[in-house]
Amino acid sequence: SQEKKKTNSKPKHLHEQEIPYRLRELMKSREEMKNPKSRKRRKADSQLSGTATIGSKEKPAAPGDIPVPTFKRRKREGEQAYIRRMEQETQRVLFLTQNQLQREPEKEEPEPEKSQKKKEFQNKRLAKMRRKKEEKKVAMLEKALFQDPVQFGEVAMQPPALTVKPRKGVAKEK
């Protein structure tokens, strides 16, 4: 007898409606505004339950490294509680270091050199690029030969001769 709820369907019983999520959230926030003391308590409890903070100023460690804790006495934390918390954290770090795998970074192999095929391919590619560059230079020099540099104020004795026939229309002979 389990029927799926439809999103915009009419309620079966008008007096038995579920309170919308947004309205519940508004009601909750109103209650919190009325009772500000409960919020302070909750904040203090969450601070006491946390462990030591991790030093964030240090550079990022390797994936297997254990973060080094930094200690700072919290608000409303007694001296004995502070010392107890430090002891627990140091014991935890000691335990983790003793049970950590031994790493020997000196014995790690360096990156293997490029394979012979890869070297050949790269050399071919570089040679091709150089060849293209040379061809481009030659083309630019040829183009520069066909250009006639005209100085400012130079007088032309006759108009340029057109060697190409017009696309449309018939070329008239003189």
Automatic annotation (TrEMBL):
<dbReference type="GO" id="GO:0005654">
    <property type="term" value="C:nucleoplasm"/>
</dbReference>
<protein>
    <submittedName>
        <fullName>Coiled-coil domain containing 137</fullName>
    </submittedName>
</protein>
<dbReference type="GO" id="GO:0005730">
    <property type="term" value="C:nucleolus"/>
</dbReference>
<feature type="compositionally biased region" description="Basic and acidic residues">
    <location>
        <begin position="112"/>
        <end position="123"/>
    </location>
</feature>
<dbReference type="GO" id="GO:0005694">
    <property type="term" value="C:chromosome"/>
</dbReference>
<feature type="compositionally biased region" description="Basic and acidic residues">
    <location>
        <begin position="76"/>
        <end position="90"/>
    </location>
</feature>
<dbReference type="InterPro" id="IPR026680">
    <property type="entry name" value="CCDC137"/>
</dbReference>
<feature type="region of interest" description="Disordered">
    <location>
        <begin position="1"/>
        <end position="132"/>
    </location>
</feature>
<feature type="compositionally biased region" description="Basic and acidic residues">
    <location>
        <begin position="14"/>
        <end position="35"/>
    </location>
</feature>
